[in-house]
């Protein structure tokens, strides 16, 4: 049975770095906030969060620390639940939430979509146990931990050569694997050669590893390559169809369309974090969550102040 007995100023979809950061700003702005978190972080498999000032630990430890900080705000609630639907309504947004005790409809003045993205690595035999341990997708997040070691970049097409060259900032021994011929142009090959980056275009048969540590890349032909880390370009998609339910538009790159304040094309629906960010990291998500929450709080406060004047005018 669906209970229609909850009201909030803001519902935040997602309790990751962006969502918790936004909850802190909104809570301090005296907004009634509900954070709905399915506890399925895209970076949940990694051992530690790199490059975040003042913190060193796992993504789960960061989430726990954020939740502890938010406990001091009686106006902020965090629910381990799933958002089933987001629908714009008169004067706000209706959010359907599935909790252990049942399904609840929450009437909110605004919603923040902070559910992140889904990251799927390429389908290479042997990659699954290495994902987040010695196979990564962000050099700025994990390059320091493998600096100076033999590393590889798995990519092809637009931007592949640039990504491989970028890895030279962390290692003198960089290999670009295109997993098939035709992944780069002749001009790009010349640039890579000048940068000291080798290229292998053979199909990859498997990744050999030991205890989640990459050891070598095995190809259909030619010798295997001893490597200690592999960077990849994952397939990035929205983690659910909630953006469709809310009527949000996606850009050509699959990210939700929004302005600098996180305002989408749907009134009172905002977005923060990886779901709309061109550049992604935990640090950037935290900052973006705070920035969007500041814009949301300002909008909500101004709207509330305008309500009495509107009522009198009517």
Q: How would you explain this protein's 3D organization?
A:
With 314 residues, the chain is α/β, with parallel strands linked by helices. The chain has two domains: 2-118 and 236-313, 3-Layer(bba) Sandwich (FAD/NAD(P)-binding domain); 122-232, FAD/NAD(P)-binding domain (3-Layer(bba) Sandwich), CATH 3.50.50. Helices cover 26% and strands 30% of the residues. It contains seven helices and 17 strands. Strands 1, 2, 3, 4, 5, 6 and 17 form a seven-stranded mixed beta sheet that branches. Strands 8-15-9-10-11 form a five-stranded parallel beta sheet. A three-stranded antiparallel beta sheet has the order 12-13-14, with no helix packed on it. The longest helix is centred in the C-terminal third of the chain and has 32 residues, at 282-313. It starts with a strand and ends with a helix. The model is unreliable at 310-314 (pLDDT under 50).
Task: Point out poorly predicted stretches.
Answer: 310-314
CATH architecture title of the largest domain: 3-Layer(bba) Sandwich
According to CATH, the homologous superfamily of the largest domain is FAD/NAD(P)-binding domain
Terminal Cα span: 37 Å
Major sheet attributes: 7 strands, mixed
Order of helices and strands: EHEHEEEEEEHEHEHEEEEEEHEH
CATH top level assignment of the largest domain: Alpha Beta
Q: Structural class of the helix and strand makeup?
A: alpha/beta
Q: How many structural domains are formed by the residues?
A: 2
Number of helices: 7
**Integer-rounded radius of gyration:** 22 Å
Which band does the percent of strand residues land in?
25-35%
Mean residue pLDDT: 93
Helical fraction equals 25-40%
Instruction: Give the overall form.
Output: elongated
Topology-level CATH name of the largest domain? FAD/NAD(P)-binding domain
The tally of beta strands, per DSSP, is 17
